[in-house]
Each structure stands twice: as structure tokens, then as C-alpha cells.
Amino acid sequence: MRVPLSWLREFVDVAPEATPEDVLASLVRVGFEEEDVHGFELKGPIVVGEVLEFVEEPQSNGKTIRWCQVDVGEDSPRGVVCGAGNFFPGDKVVVTLPGSVLPGPFPIAARKTYGHVSDGMIASAKELGLGQEHSGILRLVELGIDAPAGTDAIALLGLDDVAVEINVTPDRGYALSLRGVAREYSHATGAAFRDPGAGHADAAARTPSGFSIVVDDRLPIRGRVGATEFVARIVRDVDATRPTPAWMIARLSLAGIRSLGVLIDITNYVMLELGQPIHGYDLDALTGGITVRRAEPGEKLETLDGQVRTLHPEDLLITDESGPIGLAGVMGGGPTEMGDATRNVLIEAATFDTVSIARTARRHKLPSEASRRFERGVDPLVPFVAAERVAELMVQLAGGTLDTELGGSLSATYERAAIALPRGFVSGLIGVDYTDEQIAAALRLVGCDVDTSVEPWAVVPPSWRPDVTDKWTLAEEVARIEGYDLIPSVLPVPPSGRGLTTAQQGRRRVSNALAAAGYVETPSFPFTTEEQNDLHGSPSGEHLPSVKMANPLDGQAPFLRRSLIPALLQAAHRNVARGLTDLAVFETGAVFLPEPGVTYGTDTVPPLGVRPDAATLVALDASIPPQRRHVAVLLTGPIVDKQPGQPAVTAGLADAIDAVRIIAGAAGVEIGLAQTTRAALHPGRAGVVTVGATEVGYVGELLPAVSEAADLPGRVVVAELDLDLLLTLGGDRVVAASLSGFPAATQDVSLVVDASLPAGDVRAALVDGAGGLLESLRLVDDYRGQGLPDGSKSLTFALRFRAPDRTLTAAEASEARLAGVAVAAERFGATLRE
Predict the structure, then answer these.
(1) 184 annotated as belonging to a binding site for a ligand
(2) DSSP letter assigned to residue 594
(3) What global pTM score does this model have?
(4) Which of 26, 105, 407, 728 is such that its CA lies 20 to 30 A from the CA of 472?
């Protein structure tokens, strides 16, 4: 809302020395947000000039210019070149002298043009910032102004005014008016307020008669009719061609509304002044009386913007006997628009339902200054005052005559129910010890009727504050008026024993461990295609059920994902396309694993604003497929960059297995690996990850065809684990192992086993047999070839033994090693390699 200060001073005492910044600071104190300060960006000397004479001089380019002699109040006239042809000798015009600056900025200087030195410029309304009309210069006689030559035109036209702009939140629609802002400035400063809406209690003057107005709302929304009051006044014999006064044009321009002719300017002016949208009809274009009703199916209306709109049965219309003539509270119709030929005007000031207007404006994508106010709620007691104010200005500025009859359809006497406000509630809610006198005074200041003789207090909000509806909003008003700076800043103290859950701590450990190892987290949307779900979300690529969304963000990816790998492939593709080829990325997120034969989703959605009961929540939970939180990694490109003496090392399967071990260590589990096959993974380079006998995920290298389909060059290795399952198997906590101060004993063992036997099974047998002295065991060699029986291989393991309380002897270490070999021999027929 832009508020011209000269206009604001009409309704509230603003100190003469107050700057726009001072006014903004005062409005901020009562809860508004400052936006900007607006002016006409003019700099003098800009004066009134009288055209003494001119000579028309045709030019070679086909244009005719006028070489003018203009009296600007100096000893001698000035010569000015002007290209306009809409003025005559004796006309008073606005002359911008050398040294002045017009909006743009456009500095004015004496310059040679068309064979003359133009000592200034005769300005148009557009060049002065008074409107968009640029067809000719501004003739002061058209504004009803006659001032001596040399008079300061900036002050004369109101161009020295300035407007402050504030942001008005949707709940404070009353502030979309000078009346509302002036009242709030009065609250902030204590300055005297003069209500331009005073007099609306005159019930006798509101008695309708004469012009027929009927409200026939057959389709009330939420049980509320679309119009509760419709006031009409008639002004006859207006002259629509009369100029709008300069002061009104200046104020409208500062408020962000362009001048459209005196009749429309008056309706806009009163809307800004009182906050009541007004519409004027060309009375002679009406057929019969006015009926306010809902639209019939198939009805159409041409609105003032020239568009023909197909109406909805919920649209509230203004109609006459010919049909629709306006969208109520949104925009009028073209056939009854006021124009230069209008001689008789019907003035409409109504109270429309906020919900109906908001729905209509959004349905037709037709926001307007009127709908902006109606959908926030306007004062239901001000339509009569607004209609009277418009009629008064049309009589004064357009030469009309006011009809004595008043047309209208009125609701019952306006009343608001009292709000119960318990003593002590405001102080308890806000945290400030207000006295009863402070609370009552603050509420009366904003217009409330406060009865403190009862308990709880009975507080009736004012008609212009539809946002004040309960004791909480009353408390907010007290805090706003008394000052937000009085509210103490107190940091809340969290209750003891609260924090991250065990599962949250585990997920954070895993993410932190991967990040510390050099992986970058790439969160993504959980949407993919059915083909990607089948490829990556099933062990062998068979079709498993996927959940399709009814309203997907992307129609090409409408399914909830069964795997994190497709999203990592997309992230890798985007990075490679931008030149980042060495990637180590990971994601933790939910995957959706619907059970075969189960239908998910629901046709019944509980209403908004109502807490669902327990049975509804259970039904909603059952409509969602099971969700598991997974963790996945992807590596591609060099894991070690090329450098002097060191060739580049490309990420391979071993690096993906290392990532799996990092995840397992953070989750507190020991993993096992065994070969497997998966649809998207390279045969022989795919492994299943287990914890004990439980499968928790997989690791492997993508098939070249899969990598190529994702536009990824070279080798790509991935791993995906069920993080929820890992953390469950890991238990409630991960305890760091104690460090022994005694030296370790290291030994190697080479075992000959069947070539098809997984090395992990042999490792597990050695671990089981070696007992508690075994600290670590690593596979260091897998040999197949000369010196071994056909169909066999030699696996070499490095073992490290350590005791927590003593230094181990070589004999103790050997005994533990042989115990492990014995178990391997028993399970798999393993033999020591000679």
C-alpha cells in the first residue's frame, strides 16, 4: 500500500518536520513492514509558462515544429522548440527550464535543435510523471488551473508530494486504505485521528427507495450469501470530459494508480481513501434494475479488460434485465463502462462475501484492486459513506446533480458477537505483565468495545477488523499497541533426555563416516520410471510392483523408487556433463517396496483443519507402501589422480567394497561378501552383502550397457544397503574397541580349497577357529595356476593376534592359527599349501 503523505495528513496529525522515514518507522512499530519511498523524481526549475506566440516550421523529415515564445515570469520570454500541436497562444503550460531533471532521469539543458536554441522544454503529463498520456503537452486550463507565469509548477501540481509504501499482510485488509493507515499511525504516535468514514451510523439515511436493487443469491457458499448490502446512488448530468484535478492525479499516481478520466479517478480515489471498492455504471446503458445473483451455466460476460469470460455457477454477478454486467467485487463489464459520453452514473458500493470474491478472482485469474480488498474483508458499515463520498466528488468535479433517491438492498443491522477475554490471559500468553488498565486502553484504542464489569471481559471488535476473532487475536492487538519491544527474549530450555533417536544417531554416523571418507551426499527426489525400478530394484530384473502417483511432478517419472541407484546415476550424469569426472557420491533415503497383490492409496482424504481420529490415521498409514531407508554409493572416474610418478587409479570394485565396510563399521556390524548376479551388474563383479545369515544389500560394477545408457563413460561401481536393517542388526549402540598396549604377533596362512568356494566362507572358518586372540584377518592373495590341482585355488590370509593383558608368544599365535586351519579343513577340506 502506497500512502501519499499529503493525503495522510488530512486524517491524522503528522508533524510538519516528519520525514518519510519517520512515518515508516512509526508504522513499523505497529506491525507493518516498510517497503520503499516513492516520489516524482523531479528537480526544478519547473514553472508555469504562458505561450505568447509561435511560428510553425515544416521540416524536411515531414514533421512540423513550433518555435515558441514563452513567458516564464522573467524579464524577457524564452524561445522553446516544441513538436506538439495541441496548444494555442495564451495557453498556460508547464516549462522545464535548463538545469531541471525529469523522471528517467532526463536532465534538461539549452540545446540547438531544428535551427534554434531551445531554452527549455514544454512538458507533457507523461514527462512529468502524471500519467501515460503522451499525445500532447499538458495544458493547465484542462486541469482548471490558472496561475501567473513563473509560478513553481512542482508545488502547483502536487509533484512535491511523496508516498511511503508498506507491506500489508492478508489478515490486515483494513490497512489497504488511507483511513486504515491513518488510524494505525495514530496508534503508533498518539496523533489525533479524523475518521473519514464517520457518519455510517445514520440509519435513517440508509433507507432504500427508488432504484430497484435485488440480492438473489441461490447458491450461498458455506451458508453465507454473496452480498449482504448493496447501496446505489445516482448522479445525473455529469460532464465526463472535465479534467481530473492535478492534486487528485498526483495522489493517484503516487499510490500506483494511473488516471483514466475524472469519473473513474473519483471511484479509485474513494477506494484508496476509505478501503471500500466502488464501481460506476453508465446509467443510460442499464436495462431495468440491478439484481445480484449467481451465474447460470453457460453465461458469458465481457469484462473491462476486453475479454469474454465463461462464467461458473459459483460466480457472483451484477446483472440487469439484459444479463450480466459485472463480476461482483472483481471487475465490471464492458457494455456499461463509464466513458466520455456518460451523462448519468449509477454508483455501486456493496459488501460481498470474502470467500466468493476470492474464488472468482482466482478462477478467472483476474486479480484487481477491488478483489484484493473484498477477499480480505472490508468494513460493512462504510458502503453508504463511500457512495455518498463518490457522489459528492462527482457533483463537485464533474458538474453532476445528485438524485435524492437511494437504491439499496440492506441486510439486518450489523452486529458482532462479544469475545470472552479472561483476566490474566493476555499477560500469560505474551509474557509481559500488563495491567488491566493497559489491556483495556489498548483494545479501546483499536476500536473495541470493552466491558470490564464482567468476568471474563466482553470485548466487541470494531466493524473494520474482521481479523480480530478470538482472545488470541485480542492478545496480539495488545502486544502490538503496547510495543513488541517490551516482549522479553527468552531462549527455551529443552527437556532433559530428549535428542536424536537411536535410529537417527545411526543414520547420522553412517552419513558422517561416508563424508569423512570423501563421498559427497546428493539428495534427490524419490521418483523414477517403472523400467528403472525393474532394473535396479529387483535382484534379477523381473517385474515387481511399483507405486504410481496420481499427480506426479514429472509425467515421465511417475513411480516411487525401489532403489537409490537411478537417482545417483542422474546426479553422476549431470556432474560428468559439467566436466566433473571423478565422482564419489552417496545418498540415504527412503525406497518404497509395495507388497504383491496389495492395493495402495485412498479415495477418502480427511478435511483440512480437522485432526483425523485414530482410525483415520491407521487407514492412511495402510494406504502407504512399506518404506525402508537405504544407503547407496556410486564411484566413477579416477580414485587417485595422475601425478608425478603416479599414474591415475580408476575406481573399481575394491573401492565400492571399502565403502560398504565403512558403512558397516559406522553401523556396528561385521559383513560378509559372496558372489551373486543382478540384472544391472557385471557377471563375476557383483556381490551380495550379508550380516551373519541375513542379506543386507549388494555391491558391484554396472554393466557397460547400463553405464552407457546413463551417459557415463568408463567403469561405474555401486553399492546399496538396507540401512534400517543394518542399524537393527548393529544394536542400540556402537562401542569403540579398547586399544591394547601389548605388541601384536603376525602370521600368514595359505590354504588350498576348491576354486568355486567363496573366500569369505574360508575367512569365516578361520575367524571361528582362531578364537578371541585374533585381532584382524585379511585376504592378501588368490592364486590359481601351476603347482595346484585342477579346479583349486590358494588363498593366503594375513592374521594378526594380540592379547589384552600380556605379550603373546609365537607358540600361542601358531596354536590359534592352526585352530583356525582345523576348522577350515573340517568345513571345506582345506589343506595347507606346501
Answers:
(1) no
(2) P
(3) 0.64
(4) 26
Q: Which residues contact 723 (CB under 8 A, 6 or more apart)?
A: 506, 507, 510, 588, 628, 629, 630, 631, 663, 667
Q: Are 208 and 30 in contact (CB under 8 A)?
A: no
Non-local CB neighbours of 148 within 8 Å, separated by 6+ positions: 48, 73
Domains of the chain: 2-40+162-189 (3.30.56.10), 46-156 (2.40.50.140), 204-410 (3.50.40.10), 419-486 (3.30.56.10), 502-730 (3.30.930.10), 745-832 (3.30.70.380)
What's the grid cell of residue 711? 551417459
* Rounded CA separation 795/778 (Å): 10
Better-scored residue on pLDDT, 182 or 620: 182
Residue 658 annotated in ligand binding? no
**Which residues, 6 or more positions from 309, have their beta carbon under 8 angstroms from its beta carbon?**
300, 301, 302, 303, 327, 364, 366
Confidence of residue 146 (pLDDT cuts 50, 70, 90): confident
CA distances from 38 to 3, 32, 248, 266 (A): 9, 17, 16, 22
Mean local confidence (pLDDT), 227-250: 88
Residues 6 or more apart from 261 whose CB is under 8 A from it? 240, 244, 338, 339, 340
Helical ranges in 96-200 per DSSP H: 125-128, 153-156, 178-189
- Listed in sequence order, the residues at least 6 apart from 832 whose beta carbon sits closer than 8 Å to its beta carbon are 749, 750, 751, 752, 821
Indicate the helix (H) or strand (E) that contains 798: strand 792-801
Q: Across residues 322-350, what is the average pLDDT? A: 91
Report the number of secondary-structure helices (H) and strands (E) in the chain. Answer: 22, 42
Q: Which residue has the cell 492478545?
A: 475
Q: Which has the closest alpha carbon to 121: 85, 53, 68, 160?
A: 68
**pLDDT tops 50 at residue 204:** no
pLDDT of residue 201: 44
Question: What distance in Å separates the CA atoms of residue 34 and residue 664, rounded to the nearest whole number?
Answer: 55
Within 10 Å of residue 56's Cβ, how many Cβ atoms? 9
3-state DSSP assignment of residue 122: strand
- The overall average pLDDT reported for the chain is 89
Rounded to whole angstroms, the Cα distance separating 775 from 804 reads: 10
Q: Cα–chain-centroid distance for residue 475?
A: 28
For the chain, what is the largest distance between any 2 Cα atoms, rounded to a whole number of angstroms?
A: 126
Instruction: Work out the angle between the directed axes of helices 502-516 and 653-667 (0-180°, nearest 10).
Output: 150
Q: For 438, phi and psi rounded to 5 degrees?
A: -65, -45
Alpha-carbon gap, residue 5 to 9, rounded angstroms: 6
* Residue indicated by cell numbers 493507515: 181
Question: What are the phi and psi torsion angles at 731 (to 5°)?
Answer: 90, -175
Tell me the pLDDT tens digit for each residue of 21-67. Answer: 999 999 998 889 999 998 888 887 999 999 999 999 998 888 999 99
> Measured at the alpha carbon of residue 123, what is the angle toward residues 122 and 125, in degrees to the nearest 5?
150
DSSP H helical ranges for 259-353: 262-274
CB count within 10 Å of CB 499 equals 8
Residue 339 DSSP class: -
Residue 299 annotated as binding?
A: no
**How many CB atoms within 10 Å of residue 82?**
22
Phi, psi of 394 (to 5 degrees): -65, -35
CA distance linking residue 809 with residue 816, whole number of Å:
11
Residue type (1 letter), 374: F
